[in-house]
Specification:
Blueprint (H helix, E strand, L loop, with lengths): L11 E2 L3 H8 L4 H27 L17 E5 L9 E5 L8 H21 L11 E5 L8 E3 L4 E3 L14 H15 L7 H23 L9 E2 L14 E2 L8 E2 L3 E2 L15 H4 L5 H14 L6 H11 L9 H16 L3 H13 L5
Helix pairs in contact: 1-2, 3-4, 4-5, 5-7, 7-8, 7-10, 8-9, 9-10
Length: about 350
Amino acid sequence: MTTNGGFEPVFCTIVPPHVLDRLAQAEDPALHGPARRTLRRDAYERTQRRLTTVVGAPAVATLTDAEPGTPRRTVYDARHGTGLPGTKVRGEGDEPGKDATVNRAYAGLGATFELFLKTYARDSIDGNGLPMDATVHYDEDYNNAFWNGEQMVFGDGDGEIFLDFTLPIDVIGHELAHGVTQYTANLDYFGQSGALNESVSDVFGALIKQYTLGQTADEADWLIGAGLLAPRVTGKALRSMKEPGTAYDDDVLGKDPQPATMDDYVRTGRDNGGVHINSGIPNHAFYLAATTLGGHAWERAGQIWYDVLTGGELGQNAQFPDFATLTVKAARARYGEGEELQAVTKAWERVGVRTL
């Protein structure tokens, strides 16, 4: 159930289509082969998600004997196939095994669960103890990770451009946050509402990493996917919230196209209207608000963003000004006329998004 009365899960990937499109055009088969296979697989999964939306998703199993406020994690191994969920390899409370990928996925699910529970009193993705499932070792040289409306899926990467997708904990948090959005504001995955959908996932992905590392806003790197790019790539991450447009500049991948302000807003029909590109603008607004306030970003700045996401006033087709206006309203409602309100208001001003 969502606050907007609809329930429309979407297929959301961490690597934007424009990155894979660029790789698919490379002359080297070691680069274009995995990229083309990944694009084909993503297209198939996206179509399956649309069909599921039309005919209805299968009921999600619940554990009635589990205590509220406790995680319910299961990690599966696809063994380089594409059948989901795969073979169960670790359940809740099981000891770590020899597969580091499995252990990282399990830990990432737990870190995400802990942040939402302890900081925002949210019991799992749906707020009602939803089991958290993840599949690792998906397909051959699969260059992506995704939330398909029901579970997390991680590829191992091709080793040439991308490494194991469980390596950055913010990738895990990002994709699971798509699930939180699905169960709350259910933002349409197109244009500015889609960019907000992506941005919210980047925000909470970054917060989960910072929470796990115990970092303040000033100590954090504000990178999404740091550690994911292979050594041959000239870049540091998939995206930068601190400096959108600077995450990579590579002869194969090209240059990071994200804008930091509305002055450079990208109008495109690709990537659902640039959802992975223009998300740099609200990303940067959050970074500015969080660093202005200082301390732990998941506390005040994160609380304001969470209040907007779950408050019931955010429309499914919300545009940047709608979201910005609600953050100002949320800041005032929770903190009054103090520094939180000023930090949020000025952050949106600096990125060129007006508040209504």
